[in-house]
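Input for the complex:
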Amino acid sequence: MKKGVLFAIILLLSYVFSQSSHILNIAAGVAIFLFGMFSLEEGFRAFAGGLLERILKLFTDKQYKSLLFGILTTTIMQSSSLVSIVSISFISAGLIGLAQGIGIIFGANIGTTTGAWLIAGLGLKVDIATYAMPMLIFGTLFLFQNEKKLKGIGSILAGLGFLFLGIAYMKEGFEAFKATIDLSQFAVGGFKGLLLFSFIGVVATVIMQSSHASLVLIITALGSGQIDYENALALAIGSNIGTTVTAIIGSLSAGLDGKKLALAHVIFNVLTGFLAITFITLFIRLVDTTAFYLGIAEDDYTMKLALFHTYFNLLGVMLLYPFIDALVRLLHRLLPKAQNAQESDDVYFITDSALDFPSTAYTVLIKETKHLYHNVVDIIAQSLSISFDDILSGMEIDDIIQRRNTPLFVDMEYHYEHRVKEIYGKIITFAIMAQGKFGEETVRDIVPMKNATISMVEAFKAAKHMQKNMLFYLNSNNEAIKHEYNHIRRNIIKVLRNIQLILNTNEEDIAVMLLGKIKLDAQKYDIAANKSLDNLIRTQQISYAMATSLMNDSTYAYTIASELAEVAQILFVHHEQEGKETREALILNESDMKDLSTHLS
Amino acid sequence: MGKSKFIQSIESLFGITPKEDESKKKSIKELIQKLKERRILIKKALKEETDILKRDTLKDHLFVLKKQIKKGREILDD
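Predicted:
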């Protein structure tokens, strides 16, 4: 908000407050309630690193489970906004699919209706402020604790306390207000009123960014008779549409799928709002009929409003749930993947919203590191005058060497600028941001990813340095030097193939064994130590200049192999959270390799 | 779902790992077993292989596996 507008609003509100202490009471109630919502969300975020994410991963494999997850979490946390932000973050990180995300959003719409029941059933009928005070005291006590989870409990308790206090203030404000001005005289009947109050509901919720805050305002106003029942229904419909603004804002920093989910949220809420407005008389009749069976008094309009709110959200879910797959297809059509007009490659998964939760940050880092690995290996393969497809093929390595015997120049600088640098920079920045934001446990997982990225760039640089001589000597008439450079190519292809196997296999024993083998092979690159260089010089098969180049390039080849082995190890160990330590335990370290090399020689 | 599997899934849901060391040792034991089975398979392959280069690769695999199994046993003994 621009400073000028903010200043004007403050001036206007100050004038209004000076004229009516009752409006001040109501506005203070809204402010305290909103503060309570923030505090509640903050508290639940403290648990987001653990329980919430584990539940999300475990219970969203099927659509109906996603729906139940949305209902339950929103009912417990009383914040559909937080649930939609969590879903957007998870969808951007690729932890859940779009269909599952939509299921959660549908569920959140049902879950949020419990708020109306709580406010109408408890908030207005019980002296809620009495419960607010102890919650605020205990909440503050917990907030003074050092442990993150205890602080989280403190935020939740204080949040609930503020919510209750806010409701009490609003109730008091409207009751007192009634004695001076009767707002119900501004009621607008008929279809015009329905549209007007729906629009007011949308605007109020967009401003407050909380449908709960709007609902509590509507229910307290309705309870004190300041607005009439039909207008209150219209306001509730409007608040349901206005609440999507939080998801839209949350999706601005998310990936394409996050944006699709926010759009699904808008489509669902606008459509259910449209249905509720179109069939309002039918809904009112349904509420009147069923209210009787539920023991709701005929003149208990606040409870009837809660019932209405539940019905139209439930109807929306019932109508749209069978068409989730069709909705997914529609969203893919409405928001297609942008054609990559520019030549440069960029990150696929890193978005600001992935930084919301530790597990999304971790998953995104692994995926992006794999993306960079693919780019780096593709370019390294080209620098060896072969293609990445050759590595993936089942062709014998000697056949590849024979087929690809024409040295091909690759502009490594260009590739670095267009396919590595941007992604590398963004991964490192993202990792640093995540390190600063999350706890020690997450940092322990993030640091290796950063190291893997650095290792890839080291391997890339080594390949760049090696390329010059490789191109020159592969064209040479000297068969001995050509043979040596083909030997280097052969070894690197072997390493790249083994790494591909490690990254693709589900058999842990194979991966652990191949990691050991890559490290063992890397030890053999030391051409000065394995005496073959001495032999080549002594028998005058190569010149001193060739020998120097060969020694340097063997070192570069060793760097490529050992750095990429490091990357493979990190990606293998961290490919899933569970069992990391076991996978790491049996991997041979440097001293194990030395023992093994000594034994072999 | 069996009783132990149910308890395991509840434990993983709430992030409770009371017997962390025990479960780590159990997984290492399982991995060692797999490595042993892999060693038997490679030994069989070595017997049938005639190509010298491929034989060298298989021998390297056996050395690596032997070292890894030894390392695993040392961890279990600690």
